[in-house]
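User: My instructor asked us to take a sequence, write out its structure as tokens, and then describe one feature of it. I'm not sure where to start. Here is the sequence I was given:
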Amino acid sequence: MKTITIAGALLLLCAAVSVQAHVASNSFLTMRVADARVDGALELAVRDAEIAVGLDSNHDGEVTWGEVRAAQGALALYLSQHLQLSGPDGRCALQFGAVEVNERVDGNYLWQPFTAVCPGVLRQLTVDYRVLDEEDPSHRGLLTLIAQGVGQTAVLGGPRGAHSFDLRHSSIASTFLEYLQAGIWHIWSGIDHLLFLLSLLLPAVLLRRGHRWQAVPQAAPAFFNTLAVVTAFTLAHSITLSLAAFDIIHLPGRLTESAIAASIIVGALNNVFPVVTEARWRIAFAFGLLHGFGFASVLSEMGLPQGARLVSLVSFNLGVEVGQLAVVLAVMPFAYLLRGTRLYQGAVMPWGSTAIAGLALVWLIQRAAG
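Assistant: Let's start with the prediction itself. The structure tokens for your sequence are:
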């Protein structure tokens, strides 16, 4: 009865989060500075704009273009209250243009252009981004800022508060830290990448003997199983992330995201119907190549600043690894302690893997169908 209850809870969790193809709540903010003027645009997911200002006026569960147009004023007012730009001489005056709709792999986004006129020539710019701070504290804005032909990036929102940028030059140290933070945030907010890794790590504390899973007798096999999976995944996605970042290889976004969802299904179902048991690192490497293209999609949104492309790439990839390692260190000790229990072998492994596969199947359908 206890196993059935746990299984039901896992399936309810799957159903609760299956309404979104990707849990991460990110906006994409671009700005170009010229003297005392800033020209920019903010891409905000329709689902996030609905949370912020309530686009769905008739509450039928669908947002139409007419509802978007009717809410333009409310959206502009909301953004003017939650996005502020200022220079050394004071705050810049924001004006918003007509909103448009862009399609991305994870749904439709509102493309909101804007201009900002500042009191004096900008040598320094402070960006205070508070969009969805109250409604969704996990939301972040990915900023690309271009001034005097030099690009800078930042992850906006959260407890850090306002960001200040020196527009005359950007330091290598600040670029390194910004891309490091972006990499950490992407792996933590990208639940699809984490679920793929988790599906391969769940059996790391078990051995397949006589058509059933058994607990590893000691820590060493579990450690080396975990190390092999994580290392293979890291090596694989680092290869394709680098190739995509330097414009050597590109894959269509919808194809990449659909393949990532399929990889989660394969990894999870392999726990329920084992085919690969002792060499799961091969699955991690093969599908890790696809996940690298997924990481590259976020990096392409931020851009690689001229003069610091290699530093930015290394820092972003390092951030992904730091975030990934933090998750592994948080999960695997508990998995090891519970490895011999009925809870782990009878519920977490089969039903947890089934829930992961079911959620990934929803993602696959959503992403493939657009």
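For the description part of your assignment, you could build on this observation: The chain has two domains: 2-20+190-369, 26-171. Try explaining in your own words what that tells you about the chain.
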